[in-house]
Write a structure and sequence with these properties.
Elements (H helix, E strand, L loop, with lengths): L2 E2 L4 H4 L16 E2 L2 E4 L3 H13 L5 E4 L15 E3 L5 H8 L1 H24 L11 E5 L2 H16 L6 E4 H7 L7 E5 L2 E3 L2 H15 L2 E3 L6 E3 L2 E4 L2 E4 L2 E4 L16 E10 L4 H7 L6 E4 L6 E4 L5 E5 L18 H14 L8 E11 L6 E4 L5 E5 L8 H13 L24 H23 L6 H10 L3
Parallel strand pairs: 1-19, 2-13, 3-4, 3-14, 4-10, 6-16, 14-21
Antiparallel strand pairs: 5-9, 6-8, 7-8, 11-12, 12-13, 15-18, 15-19, 16-17, 17-18, 20-21
Bound molecules: flavin-adenine dinucleotide.
Flavin-adenine dinucleotide binds next to α2, β15 and β19.
Length: 459
C-alpha cells in the first residue's frame, strides 16, 4: 500500500524529524532582520547573515516547521540550473548570463562544502546530472540544450549516444543523453533540518508554528505578536500567493513524487546507475529522479499542475491519478521494475513567476526583500539567492549583487479563472505534444509545444 502525503517520503521516514516544533513567537519582538519562511532560502539567508555579521539579530518565522515546504519535499537534485538564464541573456547580454551560470556552478560546491563544514549529513553524492532523450524530437532538443550549455562554459559536459547512455543507466528507448558533473544527489529534508540547527548554533532565533499574516515595511505580523525590524525578507516561494496582496505574484505550481521500496542488488545490477547521477528527461512535461541513499528510486513530475485560486496541497497529499501516471512513467523507463512496490507518494508547491525567471530583490527604502520564483530549480539557487540577500542587506556591492537576476521585476499573473484555464491548457498541450512526439517519431518539436512555450512566456 502506498502512503500518500505525510509531508513527504523524506519526512515520513526520518524519525529524527518528528520532534515537537520549536517554540512559537509569544509576544511582540524586535530584530535587525526578520525572515519569513523556514526553507532553504530563509535559512541560508539567516545562516550567511550571521556568519558575516555575528552581532546581527536575525529572526526566522515559520508557519509550520522548518522543511515543511518544498525544501523538505523535493527531488534532491542539487544542480547548477537556474530558471530564466536564457531570458536574462536576452535582457542583459550573454556575458551577464554567463556570470550567473558560473555563480550557479560554484553554488553546487558551496552547498556541499558548507554542509560538510557544518556537519550536516544530507546523503550527498556528487554523481552529476544525466538528462536523457527517449524520442527523436527529444534528441533534437537534447542536442540543442547540450550545445547551449557548452556555450555557457560547461566544457566538462558530455554527450552520449544510445549505447553509452544505456551503459550508464539501462533506460528503455533511450536514444541519447547529456551529462554534467555540476550536480549532486541529496536528501532534501536532512539538508534543511541540518541548516536550521546550524543557524541556531550561530544564534539565529527560529519560531515555528508562527504564521505571518501580514508583511509590511519594517514589520512582520503574526497572530501572536509583531516582529519589527529594519529588514523584512519574504522567503515563502510556492506559498507566497497566500500572503495578503501577493495572490498573483508567483503561481503555486504542484510537483508530485513517488518512491519505490528499496531495490535488491540484482535490480541494480540490471539497471546500472552505479554513479548515482540524478536523472531527468527532455519531455515537455519533464520528469526528475534520483537513486536514494537507501537504494530506492524517487521520481517526480507535474501531475495536476495547479489548483484553482492558487490553493496549495494538504500536507503533501497528491491525487491517486498522479500516483498512477508517475508509476507508469517509472515502469516505462525501467520495464524490468514493473510491479515494484511504490511505498510513498507526495506533492509540494514551487513558485512560478509570470516570465519563469527566478529573482532576488531588496528595496533599500522600505527594507522589504524577497527571493524565489525558482520554478523547479531551487535547491542550489536558494543558496545563491541567500548569499545575494546577505550582501544586499549589508549594503555591499559585490559580484553577486550585480548578477542579472537581482532586482528583476515581472508583471503579475492573470486573475482567475484565466490563471487556472491557462495553466491547465498549457499542460494539456505539453502532454499532447509528448504523446505526439513519441508516436510519430518525428525529429522536431511539435508546433503545439512551441506555441505553448510562446504563450506561457516559458520559451
Ligand atoms: C516535489 C518537488 C520537487 C522538487 N525537486 C527539486 C529538485 O530536485 N531540485 C531543485 O533544484 N528544485 C526542486 N524543487 C524546488 C525546490 O525544492 C524549491 O525551489 C526550494 O526548496 C525553495 O525553497 P524556499 O525556501 O524558497 O521555499 P520552501 O521550501 O517552500 O519554504 C518556504 C517556507 O515558508 C513557510 N511559509 C509560507 N508562508 C508562510 C507564512 N505566511 N508565515 C510563515 N511561514 C510561511 C512554509 O511553511 C515553508 O516552510 C522541487 C519542488 C517540489 C515541490
Amino acid at each position: 500500500m502506498t502512503i500518500n502525503g505525510g509531508i513527504s517520503f523524506w519526512y515520513a521516514t526520518d524519525t529524527t524529524a518528528h520532534q515537537p516544533p520549536r517554540a512559537p513567537l509569544t509576544t511582540d519582538a524586535t530584530a535587525d532582520v526578520v525572515i519569513v519562511g523556514g526553507g532553504y532560502t530563509g535559512l541560508w539567508t539567516a545562516y550567511y547573515l550571521k556568519r558575516a555579521a555575528p552581532d546581527l539579530r536575525v529572526t526566522v518565522l515559520e508557519q509550520k516547521f522548518c522543511g515543511y515546504g518544498a525544501s523538505g519535499r523535493n527531488g534532491g537534485w542539487l544542480y547548477n540550473g537556474i530558471a530564466g538564464r536564457d531570458r536574462y541573456a536576452a535582457l542583459h547580454g550573454h556575458q551577464a548570463a554567463l556570470r550567473l551560470q558560473h555563480a550557479m556552478n560554484d553554488t553546487v560546491t558551496e552547498v556541499i562544502d558548507t554542509a560538510a563544514k557544518e556537519g550536516i549529513d544530507a546523503d550527498v553524492h556528487r554523481g552529476g546530472v544525466l538528462e536523457v532523450a527517449r524520442t527523436p524530437a527529444q534528441l533534437t532538443r537534447l542536442k540543442a540544450f547540450h550545445a547551449a550549455e557548452l556555450g555557457f562554459g560547461e566544457s566538462d559536459r558530455v554527450l552520449y549516444d544510445a549505447t553509452d547512455t544505456r551503459a550508464r543507466i539501462d533506460i528503455a528507448d533511450a536514444v541519447g543523453s547529456s551529462w554534467t558533473p555540476h550536480g549532486a544527489r541529496i536528501h532534501p529534508l536532512k539538508l534543511v533540518r541540518g541548516l536550521a540547527a546550524a543557524c541556531e548554533r550561530l544564534g539565529v532565533v527560529i519560531h515555528e508554528s508562527t504564521p505571518v499574516t501580514e508583511l509590511a515595511p519594517r514589520r512582520a505580523v503574526t497572530p501572536y505578536g509583531t516582529v519589527r525590524a529594519p529588514y523584512v525578507l519574504r522567503c515563502t516561494e510556492g506559498f507566497t500567493a497566500a500572503l495578503k496582496g501577493q495572490k498573483r505574484t508567483w503561481l503555486p505550481m504542484n510537483s508530485s513524487m513517488i518512491v519505490t521500496a528499496p531495490l535488491p542488488p540484482s535490480a541494480w545490477d540490471s539497471l546500472g546507475w552505479s554513479d548515482q547521477a540524478v536523472l531527468g528527461d527532455m519531455a515537455h512535461a519533464y520528469m526528475y529522479a534520483q537513486r536514494t541513499a537507501d537504494d530506492r528510486i524517487a521520481i517526480g513530475g507535474r501531475g495536476v499542475p495547479y489548483r484553482f485560486g492558487s490553493r496549495t496541497d494538504n500536507d503533501g497529499r497528491t491525487q491517486p491519478a498522479t500516483i498512477a501516471s508517475l508509476s507508469s512513467l517509472l515502469f516505462s523507463f525501467f520495464p524490468q521494475l514493473t510491479g515494484t512496490e511504490i511505498t510513498h507518494a507526495w506533492s509540494g508547491v514551487l513558485g512560478v513567476p509570470r516570465d519563469w525567471c527566478a529573482t532576488v530583490t531588496l528595496d533599500a527604502t522600505t527594507g522589504l526583500g524577497w527571493a524565489g520564483g525558482y520554478v523547479g530549480s531551487g535547491v542550489a539557487t536558494a543558496n545563491l539567492a541567500a548569499r545575494t540577500l546577505r550582501d544586499l542587506v549589508l549594503g555591499q556591492t559585490t559580484e553577486l549583487t550585480t548578477l542579472p537576476w537581482v532586482h528583476h521585476r515581472v508583471r503579475r499573473w492573470e486573475p482567475e479563472p484565466f490563471r487556472w484555464l491557462g495553466v491547465h491548457a498549457l499542460y494539456a498541450a505539453y502532454r499532447e505534444a509528448d504523446r505526439h512526439e513519441s508516436t510519430t517519431h518525428r525529429p522536431t518539436t511539435t508546433p503545439l509545444a512551441r506555441l505553448a512555450d510562446h504563450i506561457s512566456g516559458r520559451g
